[in-house]
Amino acid sequence: MSRPARRWAVVVAAGRGERFGGSTPKQYTLLLGRPALSWSLAALLASPAVDGVVVALAPRDRRWKRLAESRSPRISTCVGGDRREASVSNALLSLAARAHDDDWVIVHDAARPCLRREDLDKLIAATRRDPVGGLLAIPVPDTLKVNDGRGRSARTADRSVLWRALTPQIFRYGLLRRALALCVERERVVTDEASAVEALGLRPRLVQGRGDNIKLTTPADRVLAEAILRAGRRT
Ligand code: CTP
Ligand code: MG
Q: Is the Cβ atom of 56 under 6 angstroms away from ligand 1?
């Protein structure tokens, strides 16, 4: 029997955070005294449009159980894979009994703690009737140089057509599973869901998001993230 499409969120938190370094994996690093993963879940949990959340964790994760969110009835967990797309695939598989092919899946990086509810709402609204789905992204503001391979600028790229991909990204459950399975079959490495969908010949919608939805990548990002979160508390 058909039912209205649901929305599931997948939060990928199974990475090693090698570029970030430190003794605590970056998804658990404290930002203003609260683990990054808690911040990253906040907007998703605050949205009534999200029916359930799956968090993909590293195989030997011991920290999740200490988070208050681990007791949320709306959240389940799964074990992630050796690459980001494998973590997403495992999370999708764990939803198999509950999700229908035309349900939406919102994939978000645990390493993006500054996501605002307004950006999530904007992404959901912009793709509500979209046949493909889409992602938060922002136009590249800088002049872009093409390295000739020897450390010299060969030319300047046309930035007017270039956008930086952020998360969340939203696609139909069935489509996303198909897209990721094809990437595995073709041994194609993808760094986001949209590139897997593009490989099917489809064009995800670019939804302009906030520039402060940064990813924790290197240690310098911690200062930035804390400043953004502090400013967000005041608005
Ligand atoms: N991720 C994941 N499973 C993996 C690799 C990454 O769930 N096998 C998640 C990370 O936990 C992070 C998000 O994907 O929330 C974005 O990836 P990235 O910033 O590259 O994080 P890491 O892979 O952890 O960092 P690094 O590449 O520096 O090791
Ligand atoms: Mg990585």
A: yes
Mean pLDDT over the full length of the chain? 96
Task: Please tell me the residue having the least CA distance from ligand 1 atom 10.
Answer: 15
**Cβ–ligand 1 contact at 215 (below 6 Å):** yes
Whose tokens are 């400043």? That residue is 227
C-alpha–C-alpha distance, residues 91 and 180, integer Å: 12
Q: How far is CA 61 from CA 18, 65, 66, in A?
A: 16, 9, 11
pLDDT at position 188 is 87
The answer to whether residue 122 scores a pLDDT higher than 80 is yes
Question: Could you give all domains of the chain from N- to C-terminal order, each with its CATH number?
Answer: 7-234 (3.90.550.10)
CA-based nearest residue to 98, from 177, 1, 4, 6:
6
Between CA 190 and CA 140 the distance in angstroms is: 20
Residue 18 in contact with ligand 1 by CB distance below 6 A: yes
Burial of 40 (C-beta count, 10 Å sphere; 0-12/13-18/19+):
buried
| Whole-number Cα distances in Å, 99 to 5, 48, 53, 148, 186 | 9, 17, 12, 47, 25
Based on C-alpha coordinates, what's the Rg of the chain?
18
Is the beta carbon of 168 within 6 A of some atom in ligand 1?
no
Each residue's pLDDT tens digit, 68-118: 999 999 999 999 999 999 999 999 999 999 999 999 999 999 999 999 999
* pLDDT surpassing 80 at residue 235: no
